[in-house]
Amino acid sequence: MDPLQFLPAWPPAATPLAWVAVLLLAAIVAGETARRFLRVSRVIAYLAVGALLGPAAADVIDEGMVSQLQIFVDIAVGMLLFELGQRVDLGWLRRNPSLLAASLLEAALTFILVYLAMTWFGVQPVTAAAAALLAVATSPAVVMTVIKDLRAQGQVTERLMLFTALNTAYAVIGLALIIGVLPYRAAQSVVTIILHPLYLIVGSLVLAGVLAIVMLSLLRLFGRRPAFQFSATVSLVLLTVAAATMLKLSVPLALLFLGVLGRLYDHERHFVSLKFGETAMLFIVLLFALAGASLQFAGWSAAVPLALAFIAARLVGKALPILLLSNASGLALQRSWLVGLGLTPMSGLALLMLHQLMAQSPALGGEIGPPMFLAITVLAFAGPLATEFALRRAGETAEESR
Questions:
Q1: How far is CA 53 from its chain centroid?
Q2: Domains in the chain: how many in total?
Q3: Residue 135: inside a domain, yes or no?
Q4: Local confidence pLDDT in tens for the 402 residues of the chain
Q5: What is the pTM of this model?
Q6: Among the four residues 62, 64, 205, 356, which has the most C-beta atoms within 10 Å?
Q7: Residue 293: phi, psi to the nearest 5?
Q8: Do the domain assignments include residue 309?
Q9: Which domain CATH number covers 176?
Q10: Which residues form the domain of 199?
């Protein structure tokens, strides 16, 4: 018998937990380094670390591990979407209809320009429509994280959050609609094609409404203690994710509706003291690191022209309508272009939608997979810079506490 059998094998085998810890620590250190010495958003460093350690590069975090950690991504996305919904004032749209008009025009023009750019390169119409739908989405995770990081407040910030929330809703609803006409569903009946997206939208709204009432009832019963609010809200977010998944509803849409309806029903402002703050930091770091790990870099050389056309069409589509309706919506032209610039980010939500579309129609992934991954990668890294520049140029940021 080996007297040293109690010693570990050499070389020691690292557990998945160890690699997750390495990913988190590397991302946090890189994020603080990027902010302190390079004066750029921490989000960029989180994405970069995830990409470097992910399956497409070092493969330290493999695809299986990314899948196992999906629950933490759901928590982070859930909290961000809920908080985004909480901070969206629907009454503002009633008081200023030009904002809704600008949002609808911005989403429509983005869709049309990207669709035309994709078809000009020979992409099939249904596939081009799917890509154009992805272009409508603005990353709520990036926008909310940059705003919280800079402690931004003001007209540009509020409009940026409003348009991001609306874009998220448009994109997710559009995804439900377009799934019905993907090639793999050509044999489905017209009734199924109509009822499926209707079920996703109405079902997500009903689920969010019920859980919002439950959440506010609990807060009314137990008061505004921050610790209880945080625990209860995270639990409701997880319940929303689980229920939406079980009922085959749209998880992002249900979470966004939960935040919006939570604010709409909260007449007594029970959520005044709710702040996720630093407690949610680990979830946010893991969200962006895993988004970076989900990026794919194969086939980029041939995808550059189409990816650049996608990016250019998207930037024009988002900025032009906001500029045209700047006076009507009550914001100076010099600040309106900053709102359009702030809508640049694409990352986690777009990747999630792209993976869903590719799972439903593998042929779609073969046609536009590499160009879309390249475009999302460029906008994932350039987006936080654009949003931070827009908020700083608008003069709505506060100095970070050291």
A1: 21
A2: 1
A3: yes
A4: 567 666 766 666 666 677 778 888 899 999 899 888 888 888 899 999 988 888 877 777 777 777 777 777 777 777 777 777 777 777 788 888 888 888 999 999 999 999 999 999 988 888 888 889 889 989 888 898 898 888 899 999 999 999 998 998 888 888 877 766 665 444 556 666 677 778 888 999 999 999 989 988 888 887 767 777 778 888 888 899 889 989 988 888 888 888 888 878 877 776 655 555 555 677 788 888 888 888 877 777 788 999 999 999 999 999 998 888 877 777 888 888 899 999 999 877 788 788 777 777 777 777 788 888 889 889 989 999 999 999 999 999 885 444
A5: 0.84
A6: 205
A7: -70, -20
A8: yes
A9: 1.20.1530.20
A10: 18-393
Instruction: Let me know: does 347 contact 380? Beta carbons within 8 Å.
Output: yes
Tokens of 336: 């309106």
Task: Quote the distance between the C-alpha of residue 167 and its chain's center.
Answer: 10
Amino acid at 41: S
Position 11 in a domain: no
What is the token pair recorded at 220?
């009314």
* Integer Cα distance of 113 and 226 in angstroms: 45
Residues 6 or more apart whose CB falls under 8 angstroms from that of 180 comprise: 188, 192, 193, 194, 196, 197
The one-letter amino acid at 379? L
